[in-house]
Amino acid sequence: MARRILIASGKGGVGKTTISAGLGEMLAELGASVCVVDFDFALNNLDLALGVEGKIVYDLYDYLSGRCKLRQALTQVSEKGNFYFLSTNKVSFDCYDEDQIKETIMKLSAIFDYLIFDCSAGLSPAFKLGVQLASEAFIVVCPSIFSLKDASIVKNYLISQNQKDIGLIINRIRGDLVACGQMLNEKQIEDILQTHVVGVIPESDGCITNGNLTTVCESSEAMRCALKSFAQNVMYGKTLVFDYLSKYRGLIGKIRAKIKKGA
């Protein structure tokens, strides 16, 4: 039976799709069989983050409408054949039967080691269905009070639904600002939300400049290392945190942080 991981957030634009794609890619590299499921029905860009835009033939709605078999609705991402994507981009969530979605997820759960649900922001109906189906949940936050406030609402909802396995992923953290004391660090965020941090992903220029040309993990070395640490934490129960502050330590590091901050 697959581990069914919900990727959620209170605020939009914090990087859920990037995290979902990157986690899936790194878990597959570690040898697991993975399927990332688009739970932001009709609005997601997960196909772009996975580098499979233009390769999708059928999606979940086609399968549930009897137009194809389940395996045909899956788009292969990895050449090794252990990483797949299930798209839901054709129609809105209102067009689906929730019981049929649940049945499909249970079928996939018997095939893969991991299912990753890339959800819409907030407490949408699709998110609430994902909560019912997930065995664990990760909340993506950015180091800002707006993101943390909304994340707290999502956390409280997860707890109200008896979801006990909840972790935080801190995305777009900037080492130069943390080193200068102008941005919350992972320990402070952990204390504010009273939830353990599973992954820390630094802000990456490469993810922006190379995003149209490569997958998430290929966009920058720092992004890849951070996502690998996150995936290892998920797979092996470790508590590794990517050292995003390493180049800002010492005298040279302080100079580098001031230059970066003023750029």
Fold and architecture overview:
The model has no long low-confidence stretch (mean pLDDT 89). This protein starts with a strand and ends with a helix. A hairpin with a 6-residue loop joins strand 3 and strand 4. The radius of gyration is 18 Å and the shape is globular. Strands 3-4-2-5-1-6-7-8 form an eight-stranded mixed β-sheet, with helices on both faces. It has helices spanning 16-29, 46-50, 60-64, 70-73, 98-109, 125-133, 145-160, 175-179, 186-193, 205-209, 221-236, 250-262, and strands spanning 3-8, 34-39, 74-76, 83-86, 114-119, 136-141, 166-173, 197-202. Helices cover 43% and strands 17% of the residues. It is built from twelve helices and eight strands. It has one domain: P-loop containing nucleotide triphosphate hydrolases (Rossmann fold, 3-Layer(aba) Sandwich), CATH 3.40.50. With 263 residues, the protein is α/β, with parallel strands linked by helices.
Task: Report how far apart the termini are.
Answer: 49 Å
Structural class determined from secondary elements: alpha/beta
CA-based gyration radius: 18 Å
User: Quick one: biggest sheet?
Assistant: 8 strands, mixed
Number of domains: 1
Task: Specify the CATH homologous superfamily.
Answer: P-loop containing nucleotide triphosphate hydrolases
Q: What is the residue-averaged pLDDT? A: 89
Q: What top-tier CATH class fits best?
A: Alpha Beta
The CATH topology assignment is Rossmann fold
- The dominant shape is globular
Q: What is the strand tally?
A: 8
The proportion of strand residues reads 15-25%
User: Are there runs of 5+ residues with pLDDT below 50, and where?
Assistant: none
Q: Which strand order spans the largest sheet, edge to edge or round the barrel? A: 3-4-2-5-1-6-7-8
**CATH architecture label:** 3-Layer(aba) Sandwich
Helix content percent band: 40-55%
Q: Return the string of H and E elements.
A: EHEHHHEEHEHEHEHHEHHH
Number of helices: 12
